[in-house]
Specification:
With 265 residues, the chain is of the alpha+beta class. Helix content is 28%, strand content 30%. The protein has helices at 4-9, 29-38, 88-103, 153-156, 169-173, 179-200, 202-213; strands spanning 20-26, 46-52, 71-77, 109-111, 115-118, 121-132, 138-147, 219-223, 228-236, 242-246, 251-254, 258-263. It has a 7-stranded mixed sheet, sandwiched between helices. A 5-stranded antiparallel sheet has the order 11-10-9-8-12. Strand 8 and strand 9 form a beta hairpin. Helix 3 packs across helix 6 and helix 3 (88-103) crosses helix 7 (202-213). It is globular, with a radius of gyration of 18 Å. It binds biotinyl-5-AMP. Biotinyl-5-AMP is lined by residues 28-30, 52, 55-59, 61, 63-64, 72, 74, 114-115, 122, 125-127, 144-146, 148, 162, 166.
Length: 265
């Protein structure tokens, strides 16, 4: 079980984690926080659980969430942001995760739109959801993050586990990390980027993310449901969309898909 006091004592924030709920086992931190959001829980509320019985990924995929080893954390934010730009909060989360990994001595790559990978294996994932409010603005946004910390490689291969394509801090570095301190640090970094968003706007977050991502003007292959797009990455906009210049000179907008390959020109 996670020690709430220890997390609280390591926070260095004004808003994030001021309201903090830590559970032993819930269905999904995103789902629970969504409910709290509807009841008016304040900006910066954070929900963490030691395990999840129904952890969710994107597009109805599931997130493997065993107890005692990882972090499952969701933060509710009430920024002034249009629905179309709320995807920048996925970038906010992956920047915060990437800072935490760097502090843990792990060199992780961020992948569009929502993963952190170490040598091609997924170590963390982000699920951003929002509640529509008035005038096409968001009433609130929830950023949910699953981070594999002390999960041994064998555990990935157990029933329902993500198998070979996943990894953890323990599997990469051979040492365990303090989960409470990691969670507190993640909240601290989230606030840092939330403040940046409030001060400088969505574009500044995208620009920071693109810089860290490192694939601008590189060749990439995007696999969509029924086709593949190949070309050079030319732009990422504040809706989180990717623009690829194909070999025939067209600029194609990519809304979702998986970049499986990105090689230098
Ligand atoms: C994601 O989805 O990567 C978003 C995951 C977000 C999880 C957090 S945990 C806290 C909060 N509460 C929730 O209920 N969710 C959020 P996606 O890109 O769709 O990737 C899902 C895919 O990743 C699955 O289909 C598996 O292949 C793989 N996967 C599942 N569990 C994994 C794990 N623990 N580590 C690495 N990969 C995993």
């Amino acid at each position: 079980m996670l020690d709430t006091k220890k997390i609280k004592n390591s926070l260095d924030t004004e808003v994030l984690g001021d309201t903090l709920y830590v559970f032993r086992d819930i269905e999904s931190t995103n789902t629970v926080l969504f409910g709290l959001g509807g009841e008016g829980t304040p900006d910066g509320t954070v929900v963490i659980s030691d395990s999840q019985s129904g952890g969710r990924g994107r597009m109805n995929r599931s997130w493997f969430s065993p107890a005692g080893v990882n972090i499952y954390l969701s933060a509710l934010l009430r920024p002034e942001i249009s629905l179309s730009e709320s995807a920048v909060f996925t970038f906010v989360a992956s920047l915060a995760l990437s800072d935490c990994m760097e502090n843990a001595g792990i060199s992780a790559d961020i992948k569009w739109p929502n993963d952190l990978l170490v040598k091609g294996k997924k170590i963390a994932g982000v699920l951003t959801e929002m509640k529509p409010g008035r005038n096409n603005f968001a009433e609130f946004i929830i950023v949910g993050m699953g981070v594999n910390l002390n999960m041994p490689q064998e555990q990935f291969d157990t029933d329902g586990g993500p198998g070979e394509k996943a990894t953890s801090v323990l599997a990469v570095s051979g040492s365990e990390v303090d989960r409470e301190l990691f969670a507190a640090q993640l909240i601290n970094y989230l606030e840092k980027y939330y403040i940046k968003f409030r001060a400088e706007g969505a574009y500044s977050i995208v620009a920071t993310w693109v810089n860290r991502w490192g694939y601008m003007n590189e060749r990439a292959s995007i696999f969509m449901e029924n086709r593949k797009i190949e070309g050079v990455v030319r732009k990422v906009d504040t809706s989180g969309y990717l623009y690829i210049e194909t070999d025939d000179g067209e600029l194609e907008k990519v809304i979702s898909g998986d970049i499986v390959q990105a090689v230098r020109e």
